[in-house]
Design goal:
about 180 residues; 11 strands; 1 helix; single chain; mainly beta
Length: about 180
């Protein structure tokens, strides 16, 4: 890839004394690709998805880390999905809504907002999946991770119910002894 910046300024005929001079200008970044010799090498090298195997909440967004080791600027696109053990998509997000470019030999962090699609099971083995490709469909990337989801409200109800049942059984056992 070749890159250039074009800057256009108005020619100022007057001179300013005893002060700063401000010259308005207009600039544009030009990104060119020439055919032949391109190296497309975009990879997803990480995410800030929680590494714990048990989760009680799903984050609202995920930060993805991309590395471009090629010699051409690329724009990653794709989806982030969370699926439950039944195969339903419970949360979904789009990668790179703003069409951010990743220049050669650079790393970029891109946020993907996760939106709930449907309700989640109270207990489930879920999968976190990232799939995508670059804007030219030359490179694909993917990431997959599994975790156990436990709804916090259901967890509290189970704990309270267990304590209540244990207390009730203990009282019955004490009554039988008398």
């Amino acid at each position: 890839g070749h890159y250039a910046a074009v800057v256009a300024k108005l020619k100022n005929s007057g001179t300013v004394q005893n002060g700063a001079q401000v010259e308005p200008s207009l600039s544009a970044l030009i990104l060119l690709r020439k055919a032949g010799g391109e190296r497309f090498n975009l990879s997803l090298i990480g995410s800030d998805w929680p590494q714990e195997s048990i989760s009680v909440a799903v984050p609202k967004n995920v930060q993805l880390t991309f590395q471009n080791e090629g010699n051409v600027h690329l724009i990653p696109y794709g989806v982030v999905e969370i699926r439950d053990m039944v195969g339903r998509v419970t949360h979904k997000g789009t990668i790179n809504v703003s069409s951010l470019r990743i220049f050669p030999e650079t790393r970029r962090y891109i946020l993907a907002d996760l939106k709930p699609i449907t309700w989640q099971l109270p207990f489930s083995i879920n999968s976190f999946t990232v799939k995508g490709n670059d804007s030219l469909n030359k490179v694909t990337f993917s990431y997959n991770s599994s975790f156990v989801y436990i709804n916090p409200v259901v967890s509290i109800l189970i704990i309270v119910s267990s304590i209540g049942l244990w207390t009730l059984l203990k009282k019955r056992k004490n009554r039988r002894k008398k």
